[in-house]
């Protein structure tokens, strides 16, 4: 459905203003929660981070970090910091942390926050954080002011989207808040090198077009990603994204392709982010999907739910997972040998 998009629902209702944003220390985290965030050493403090709402100073190494955005826990964990609070996006994963990152919790069970009715400010304050991270949170200026009354708060870079600004920018913002910008840059450099290496191993992909689509129609519409919107995982491997359906894409969002326009998405390779068998079956019955050359000639990839989630998360950990799992599937598709079935 459309929630699996580069634009998570941005209309988050603001909760009631906190009666008291700070904590008096009388509340403690729930049983089983970590008492402090795990943290790798080596940060430089005080750390100053510039962002879309101004500037935040983190005076000393944070011990209790809360992630209020939908994907930031991945970066924190990769940098060796176990957050005391994480935010559920979708998938209902244990500890709101997907398989590619869960082992890094090392047995901890952070508080899982929800955003169904806006940010849970009171619950966040009760966690007594000394750093709040929200680079992928749809945070407003008012939200930022409320968060900043609780703890130093890091949000996305100036001019960024509310959600899913470039993953490199988000990594660096989070790393800066931890006083470890160089470590964040190293994560970026290593992952970009890994993608470049796979692209170099498959020079033939540079001659192929690709389309990335959600895996099932929703309310009679198939949501397809125009070039540049959550498609880097393919272009960094050498593929050229299909064009011609941009007129169906609201600004900054996916193209809304109806059944009669499905032919627009045909390409040398199509990646369908299917999440379950039901969605796969629904896709196969949608419009003229079965007549697309990429589908008929076994040049389409169908993901499982975890791989689809990894593509949508767009963090270094999830992108590494995508590279590992998707590469052999793309090899099959490029050779016309991809199974037309939901992955077993």
Largest sheet: 6 strands, mixed
Shape: elongated
Q: How much is the average pLDDT? A: 89
The CATH architecture of the largest domain can be given as: 3-Layer(aba) Sandwich
Q: CATH class of the largest domain, please?
A: Alpha Beta
Content-based structural category: alpha/beta
Helix content: 25-40%
Mind telling me the CATH superfamily name of the largest domain? Nitrogenase molybdenum iron protein domain
**Which stretches of 5+ consecutive residues score pLDDT under 50?**
1-39
- How many structural domains does the protein architecture include? 2
What fraction of the residues are assigned to beta strands by DSSP?
5-15%
Order of helices and strands: EEEHEHEHEHEHHEEHEEEHHEHH
Number of helices: 11
CA radius of gyration is 21 Å
Query: How many β-strands, per DSSP?
Result: 13
Termini gap: 21 Å
If you consult CATH, what is the topology of the largest domain? Rossmann fold
Region (Disordered): 24-46
Main location: other
InterPro entries: ABC_transptr_periplasmic_BD, Bact_iron-sidero_bind
Protein name: ABC transporter substrate-binding protein
């Amino acid at each position: 459905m459309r929630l699996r998009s580069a634009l998570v629902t941005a209309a988050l209702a603001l909760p009631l203003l906190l009666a008291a944003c700070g904590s008096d220390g009388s509340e403690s985290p729930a049983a089983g929660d970590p008492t402090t965030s795990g943290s790798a050493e080596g940060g430089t403090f005080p750390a100053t981070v510039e962002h879309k709402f101004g500037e935040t100073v983190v005076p000393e190494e944070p011990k209790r970090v809360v992630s209020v955005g939908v994907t930031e826990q991945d970066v924190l964990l990769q940098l060796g910091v176990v957050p005391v609070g994480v935010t559920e996006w979708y998938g209902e994963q244990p500890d709101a942390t997907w398989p590619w990152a869960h082992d890094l919790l090392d047995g901890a069970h952070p508080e899982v926050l929800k955003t169904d009715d806006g940010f849970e400010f009171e619950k966040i304050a009760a966690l007594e954080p000394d750093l709040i991270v929200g680079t992928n949170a749809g945070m407003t200026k008012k939200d930022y002011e409320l968060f900043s009354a609780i703890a130093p708060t890091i949000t996305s870079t100036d001019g960024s989207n509310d959600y899913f600004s470039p993953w490199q920018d988000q990594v660096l913002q989070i790393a800066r808040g931890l006083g470890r910008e160089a470590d964040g840059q190293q994560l970026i450099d290593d992952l970009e090198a890994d993608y470049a290496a796979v692209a170099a191993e498959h020079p033939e992909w540079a001659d192929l077009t690709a389309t990335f689509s959600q895996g099932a129609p929703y309310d009679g519409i198939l949501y397809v990603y125009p070039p540049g919107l959550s498609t880097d995982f393919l272009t960094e491997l050498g593929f050229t994204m299909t064009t011609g359906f941009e007129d169906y894409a609201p600004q900054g969002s996916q193209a809304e392709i109806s059944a009669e326009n499905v032919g627009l998405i045909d390409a040398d390779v199509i990646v369908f982010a299917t999440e379950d068998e039901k969605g796969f079956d629904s896709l196969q019955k949608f419009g003229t999907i079965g007549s697309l050359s990429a589908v008929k000639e076994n040049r389409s990839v169908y993901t499982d739910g975890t791989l689809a989630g990894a593509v949508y998360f767009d963090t270094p950990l999830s992108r590494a997972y995508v590279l590992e799992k998707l590469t052999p599937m793309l090899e099959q598709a490029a050779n016309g040998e991809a199974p037309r079935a939901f992955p077993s």
